Amino acid sequence: MFELLKAGGILMVPIVACSILALAIILERIWTLRASRVAPPQSINELWRWIKKKELNGRKLKALQASSPLGRILAGGLINAKHGREIMKESIEHEASQVIHELERFLNPLGTIATITPLLGLLGTVIGMIKVFAEIQLAGVGNAGNLAGGISEALITTAAGLSVAIPALVCHRYFIRRVDELVVNMEQEAIKLVEVVHGDREIDVEGA
Q1: What DSSP designation does 208 have?
Q2: Cβ-proximal residues to 109 (8 Å cutoff; 6+ apart), any chain
Q3: Which residues of 37-49 are buried (b: 16+ CB within 10 A; e: fewer)?
Q4: Among 107, 113, 144, 195, which is most buried by a count of CB atoms within 10 Å?
C-alpha cells in the first residue's frame, strides 16, 4: 500500500487526508443521525402521558429538553405555551433552526471532499502526463520504464481520487435525505403538540 501511495506522487497526501476526514465524518454522522437518538418514540410517548395526566412540570421539562433534539424543540415550545399559539410556534421554530443546523453539521465538508478529490486526481493525472511528455522530449520513447512511471502516477491519483469521491458523494446525498426525513418527523410532532396544548386536537390514547 505504501509503495502504491508513493508511486502516486505528492498529490496522494491530500487525497489520503481527504479519505480519512471523509471516513471520520461518515461514521460520526451515522451515529448522530439515528432516529432513536434524534426523535426517540419513548420520549414522545412519555410527554403525551405527562400532558394527559397533567403531570408536566419544570423538572420534567428539563428532562425532556435534555433527552433528544426533538425533546429540545418541544420543550422550547412548552416553556412559552402560556404566551399564546404564535409565541409558542416562534419558540419551536427558533429551537428547530438550531437543531437542524446541528443535524447538518459536517455535511458541507463532506460535500466539499466529494467535489475536490476527483479534481486532485485529475491534477495528478495532468502532472503525470507532463512528466511523460517531458521524458519523451529528453530521452525519446526508448526509455519505457520512465514513461511507465509517469503514466502510473497519473492513473493511481485518478483512481484514488474517484475512490474517495464516490462513497463521499453517496453518503453526502444519503445524509441530506436523512436530515430531511428527521425534520419532517419533528415538524409533525411539533404541530401536533401546538394543537394539543391549545385544545385543537385530542391526545391519541394509544400513543399516550
Answers
A1: -
A2: 21, 25
A3: ebbbeeebebbbe
A4: 113
Q: At residue 93, what is the residue type?
A: E
Give whole-number Cα distances, 80 to 28, 85, 108, 194, 196, in Å: 33, 9, 33, 11, 14
pLDDT value, residue 207:
44
Average pLDDT over residues 131-152: 67
Sequence-ordered strand ranges (E) for 24-181 = none
Per the structure block, which three cell numbers stand in for 95?
A: 429551537
The string of pLDDT tens digits covering residues 61-117 is 999 999 899 999 999 999 988 888 899 999 999 999 999 999 999 999 999 999 999
End-to-end CA separation in angstroms for the chain = 57
- Summarize the confidence of residues 130-158 as an average pLDDT: 71
